[in-house]
Amino acid sequence: MGLRAGDTIAAIATPSGVGGVGIIRVSGPAVRQIAEALIGRLPRPRYATLSTFSAADGSPIDQGLALYFPAPHSYTGEDVLELHGHGGPVVMDLLLHRCLEFGARLARPGEFTERAFLNGKLDLTQAEAVADLIESSTALAARLAARSLQGVFSQHIQALVEGLIELRVHLEATLDFPDEELDLADERAQVADGLSALIAQLDRLLAEAYEGQRIREGLNVAIAGAPNVGKSSLLNALCGSEAAIVTDIPGTTRDLLRFDIQIEGLPIHIIDTAGLRHTQDPVEREGVRRAQEAVQQADLVLWVYDAARGLDEGVCPSLAPRVPLIRVRNKIDLLGESPGIKAEGEEVEVALSVKTGGGLELLKAQIKHQVGLSPHPEGAFSARRRHLDALRRAKGSLLAASEHLAAGQSPELVAEELRAAQQSLGEITGKFSSEDLLDRIFASFCIGK
Ligand SMILES: Nc1nc2c(ncn2[C@@H]2O[C@H](COP(=O)(O)OP(=O)(O)O)[C@@H](O)[C@H]2O)c(=O)[nH]1
Ligand SMILES: [Mg+2]
């Protein structure tokens, strides 16, 4: 993968608007020239140098700090210059345009980090962690992203890859001496052992990555049930605000209402829906259709019913087979029951009263439990869907290898699966990755990062 060498990129790295400090970031071979033109000299490397940034006619634009990081000891691995001026949009624009006069061009989103990746400063999971850290919606998500940025995820992948390589070497040796029948059975047993150990290791990593992805992206939780059972009241209670309209008139909620909350660091996108019932009203009918759709797409459904009326009143829609569900027995205050949790096989029911608040904490704990979050996920790292996909593909290859081996197939077939597994793992860290994938990843970054 060749670096589009030769060009210099520049961007305002701080958010647009007014602030105490605004930072221009420049990376590439024109950095020296830009520094000399704007501040009259190349600042001492890695020292904050108070400087006057001047316009083409020599008049001052701003005064601030200049920082120079010579290649390769910089974020991008190239010559980098940072100008810390006053954070006003006009000042920042003037400074940026000065950089452009000397051959720099505007950086694309994520281009600084892309260069860092292409120059081997970061691997792909670390580069993604940079964006995840910036975008994290909870403190827990931020902590996990910081761990990925430190390379925790990459190290796990590396350990797997090393195990795989060892196994491949072992297998290649067998391939080279196909006639030594006696040793072959022994070799096969050893490879099989090595394979099961790797699969177990991969399973643990998958579980952790799944958790990391959940904490990064959050969970879609849909509240559904018959009209008037207290769905909107439950949404309000979980949000801690009067977000949704609550009345005793059935059919009040027609649109989907979405709110972002968090339960102990887990971001939750909670969706209130129209009560599911047959109706002639075209607006409400559309609401019911959308409610059904939201239920099908949710990661978890809170199926609410009115304790005083019983479970049969609202007929539970046929859910997609794997949408997990918690049944919420609401309005227990009307019957004088106490809050509690009861599990019957796969089904879990939480009895509560939104009105008194009794049992809400039980429901929150159950939500957290149901999505498979460990009680102390701080040790995990952030991960994305594409990482999970690649890990699952790697696992598929390892399972296939192990089947070939058990079926007494030729070692070439086994070796081929091991190679495929290694390839999938390499996609995660960016060792093997298509230009397309890279473009997609870095395009989602903000400018100046
Ligand atoms: N007694 C009692 N009434 C409730 C409770 N939760 C909700 N309600 C009432 O039930 C009615 C319908 O509530 P709402 O949240 O609009 O139900 P939705 O149609 O399912 O969204 C309102 O009058 C609420 O005040 C509860 O726990 N106990
Ligand atoms: Mg409602």
TrEMBL record:
CDD domains: trmE, TrmE_N. Its main location: cytoplasm. Its EC number is 3.6.-.-. It is found in: Cytoplasm. Its cofactor is K(+). The keyword Magnesium applies. GO terms for biological process: tRNA methylation; tRNA wobble uridine modification. Mg(2+) binds at S232, T253. It is an enzyme of class 3 (hydrolase). Keywords: Cytoplasm, GTP-binding, Hydrolase, Magnesium, Metal-binding, Nucleotide-binding, Potassium, tRNA processing. One of its GO terms (cellular component) is cytosol. Binds 1 potassium ion per subunit. Exhibits a very high intrinsic GTPase hydrolysis rate. Involved in the addition of a carboxymethylaminomethyl (cmnm) group at the wobble position (U34) of certain tRNAs, forming tRNA-cmnm(5)s(2)U34. This is tRNA modification GTPase MnmE. It comes from Caldichromatium japonicum.
